[in-house]
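Re: your question about RNA polymerase sigma factor 70 region 4 type 2 domain-containing protein

S., sorry for the slow reply, the queue was backed up all week. Below is exactly what I fed in.
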Amino acid sequence: MTSWLFQITRRVVGNVRRSSWFKRSLFGDRPTEPAFDRQDPVNLSQELAVRQCLAKLPKAQVEALVLLEVDGLTREEIAEALGIPPGTVASRVRLAREAFRKAWEESSEPEEAGLSWGKR
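Result:
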């Protein structure tokens, strides 16, 4: 049931993302803004840096990485929710981590916050 609901939610969000309003508001000339109002400016700058790095990655990779790292789903749960094989999930997460790490190292503030999965 949760997989079914997640698929519907994912498709609705995808439709909104494809709309011109979303593209203008997300990819406009304005700088990236935080998702939530926060009191701690250190976490705020880290959140903005992470969001900017994620914006450079392919959407399929970001989706798999966020579901794994942020939402805490397993590979099998992600595979079921997205309707793809678990191996594809693992591949997308691996590629996303590599691309994120590269984008993070190229960003202006890499020393301020470390990556949770570390360097190899």
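The chain has one domain: 3-28+42-108. Residues 27 and 70 are 23 Å apart (CA to CA).

Happy to talk it through on Thursday.
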